[in-house]
């Protein structure tokens, strides 16, 4: 859908309408990268009405501007992993792991196993934080200290922390994006005229 919107010659910009608590990590980084790269092709903004959390915020952060409703909740920057509790297994669930692969089935009931699993979610969260920092043009330390530390910030508090750029409505954001496009097109036309004049194409 993003690729189709970017290639659609009848549209000059893309506005993502986001209301989601997030989801699985698989594919989110690639999609966010596509959105971030797409900003070079067309203006891309996002509007959050209810919630832009976790994976949904990752995507919103990749756009050039985030506008939210006063009651919208943003953040939940972090990674959660759920693993089966081995103590709840029946005799039918007994597993044998190859001797060559001692790290294949970390046991969450042991300190070593918990450490292995914690390292996985920490590594994934590090990518999340780094991407949000890049998208929003702030440091990773700023994301860690000001963007809720895994919690949510609502409305003006989210704007103040830098998670969003302003408060507004969907209709107002759409109108602002349309004005932005017309302004940019005006700048482009004037710049093209100046280049042509400087090259002697226009006298």
Describe what is shown at a glance.
With 203 residues, the chain is of the alpha/beta class. The protein is 46% helix and 14% strand. Helix 2 runs parallel beside helix 3 (55-61) and helix 4 (111-136) crosses helix 5 (140-146).
Describe the overall structure.
Strands 1, 2, 3, 4, 5 and 6 form a six-stranded mixed β-sheet that branches. The chain is 46% helix and 14% strand. The model has no long low-confidence stretch (mean pLDDT 89). The protein is α/β, with parallel strands linked by helices.
Characteristic terms for this protein:
203 residues; alpha/beta; 6-stranded mixed beta sheet; elongated
Instruction: Please report the number of helical segments.
Output: 7
Distance between the termini: 44 Å
Order of helices and strands: HEHEHEEHHEHEH
The share of residues in extended strands comes to: 5-15%
Chain-averaged pLDDT: 89
Total strands: the figure is: 6
Silhouette: elongated
**Which blocks of ≥5 consecutive residues have pLDDT under 50?**
none
Please outline the major beta sheet: 6 strands, mixed
Q: In percent, how helical is the residue content?
A: 40-55%
The structure class reads alpha/beta
Rg, nearest Å: 22 Å
Topology:
Layout: H1 2-7, E1 14-20, H2 28-38, E2 44-53, H3 55-61, E3 65-68, E4 73-75, H4 111-136, H5 140-146, E5 152-154, H6 155-161, E6 166-167, H7 170-198
Parallel strand pairs: 1-2, 2-3, 2-4, 3-6
Antiparallel strand pairs: 4-5
């Amino acid at each position: 859908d993003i690729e189709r919107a970017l290639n659609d010659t009848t549209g000059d910009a893309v506005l993502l309408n986001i209301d989601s608590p997030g989801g699985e990590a698989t594919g989110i980084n690639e999609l966010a990268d596509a959105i971030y790269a797409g900003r070079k092709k067309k203006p891309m903004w996002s509007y959050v009405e209810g919630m832009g959390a976790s994976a949904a915020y990752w995507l919103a952060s990749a756009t050039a501007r985030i506008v939210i409703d006063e009651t919208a909740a943003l953040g939940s920057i972090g990674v959660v992993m759920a693993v089966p509790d081995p103590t709840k297994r029946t005799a039918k669930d007994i597993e044998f792991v190859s001797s060559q692969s001692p790290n294949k089935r970390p046991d969450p009931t042991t300190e070593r196993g918990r450490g292995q699993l914690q390292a996985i979610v920490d590594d994934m969260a590090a990518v999340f934080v780094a991407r949000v920092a890049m998208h929003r043009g702030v440091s990773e330390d700023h994301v860690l200290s000001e963007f809720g530390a895994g919690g949510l910030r609502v409305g003006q508090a989210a704007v103040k922390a830098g998670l969003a750029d302003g408060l507004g409505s969907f209709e107002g954001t759409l109108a602002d994006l349309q004005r932005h496009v017309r302004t940019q097109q005006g700048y482009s036309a004037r710049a093209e005229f100046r280049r042509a004049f400087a090259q002697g194409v226009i006298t």
